[in-house]
From TrEMBL:
It comes from the Eukaryota. InterPro entries: Asp/Orn_carbamoyltranf_P-bd, Asp/Orn_carbamoylTrfase, Asp/Orn_carbamoylTrfase_sf, Asp_carbamoyltransf_Asp/Orn-bd, Orn/put_carbamltrans. One of its GO terms (cellular component) is mitochondrial matrix. The keyword Transferase applies. This is ornithine carbamoyltransferase. It is an enzyme of class 2 (transferase).
Amino acid sequence: MFHVKNSFFCALKTFRSIHVRNFGIGRISLGGVNLKGRSLLTLKDFSSDEIKHFLWISHDLKRRIKHEGQYLPLLQGKSIAMIFEKRSTRTRMSTETGFALLGGHPCFLTPQDIHLGVNESTRDTARVLSGLTDIILARVYSHSSLEELEKEATIPIINGLSDLYHPIQILADFLTLQEHYGTLKGLTVSWIGDGNNVLHSFMMTAAKLGVHLRVATPKGYEPDSGVVREAEKLSKQFGTKLFLTTDPMEAAHGSNVLVTDTWISMGQEEEKVQRLKDFHGYQITMQTGTVASPDWTFLHCLPRKQEEVDDQVFYSQNSLVFQEAENRKWTIMGLMVSLLTDYTPKIPMIKF
């Protein structure tokens, strides 16, 4: 019986995937896009319209709940399994409070709680949680763990962070920029720092929103070559510019948005001394802003260290970091609503 049931779910998942990816079936709804039942491991898998739909729903929920005081129990009766191999402030709090605010029940799970891939295989965990919850968010070390979860689960999987991508952070970043500038198309974002998972997600998303991307990384810390090739294709497809250099000031030239991230991620502590040496000259300061556009702003996904950006920038009027942090909540809510319901925003489509 289990074998038959499992085969049915696998066939159903394959059928759904084929229709969504190849024929566009499942994308049509009252709002023009239907993402119910999809997983989000990387924004590489989502079209321009689909990413805009995530942001539109996020903006709608923020307007209706925060500014109009409405109660929207869109996820009442549903539960989410939150698997955290790596600690977090923003990812945990935004997901846990956001899911509860929508009427659902969040379940926080650490490696000590479930021993993912140790006492129980990732495959078995995916199948068990598929029968107990409605959606899984996993913050993991290896992207392959997410791929295995997605392969074996019969419910949506959200990448809460992996070594390759951090898509939920980028949704918050672009919602923040859309709110600040009123539109995204034509903006130039400059990344100054490590060629890491956050940068990879920028590279898979920016062109689809009409955003130019300028990247400065030290030699030896470049973004993944496969991600670069895909980003180059996207830039050609959407008519945007992608520029890579090792010079921070060159990357910042004419930019609307200066972005950086930690130079030493969890698991890289032993590399600290060498990394601090290699990233010398990459700190974002007001001097960096002198070559940027007059309306330049600053983003950092946090937590932040002094060597990455000085206080004068971090706490300045140019900084959007705390709005960006709050928008982690509204965008993860928008994402979860998109993947679990047929909800259509009640406000007009925002300008992109």
